[in-house]
Amino acid sequence: MEYCNENIKDVYHELFDEALARYNEKQTRSDRRIDDYYEKICSGKQEKPFHEIILQIGNKDDMGAKTEDGQLAAKILDEYMQDFQRRNPTLRVFSAHLHMDVIYSMILNVYYVYSVQKKRKKRTQYTKRV
Fold first, then answer.
1. Buried b or exposed e, range 25-44, using 16+ CB within 10 angstroms
2. Domain ranges of the chain
3. Contact 81, 98 (CB under 8 A)
4. What DSSP line would sit under 89-116, residue for residue?
5. SS3 5
6. What is the three-class DSSP state of 68?
7. How far apart are CA 51 and CA 85, in angstroms?
8. Which pLDDT band holds residue 100 (cuts at 50, 70, 90)?
């Protein structure tokens, strides 16, 4: 079952183009401007362009896909996914699939990006009072 399957580059443009434009406007040096945020993230060594959650209930012995318990697992995973975006407002799901054709057990794959960037804490200098 496919919940969503969007192009990740399109999602990045939707989420970050406005902020990227504001950032680029403030840059006085052209070498500090970012042309494509997705490409910058992909080429970086610290960030990941997306994250994945893999959810599985049971295994092939107790929740096989073709069993009654397997169908219960599929229903639980479906309910989990239906409400996922509301429970996680800072995550933007761009691809999600419930694999029900697997002979072992039901597996839910959820791919997402952080839709809100973390703010860096400002460093404050403290002075001792004497």
1. eeeeeeeeeeeebbeebeee
2. 2-114
3. yes
4. TTEEEEEEEEE---SS--EEEEEEEESS
5. strand
6. helix
7. 14
8. confident
Pick the residue with more confidence: 62 or 37?
37
For residue 122, pLDDT over 80 is answered with no
User: What tokens were used for 4?
Assistant: 């969503």
Place of tokens 């002979």: 103
pLDDT over 90 (residue 117): no
C-alpha 33/C-alpha 59 separation (Å) is 49
pLDDT given at position 101: 67
Pairing of strands 51-56, 107-114: antiparallel
In the structure encoding, which two tokens stand for residue 101, read together?
Answer: 């054709």
Read off the pTM: 0.79
Q: Is 60 exposed, middle or buried (0-12, 13-18, 19+ CB in 10 A)?
A: middle
Whole-Å CA distances, 50 to 38, 96, 111, 112: 10, 13, 7, 6
Strand ranges in 1-130 using DSSP code E only, listed in sequence order: 2-5, 51-56, 91-99, 107-114
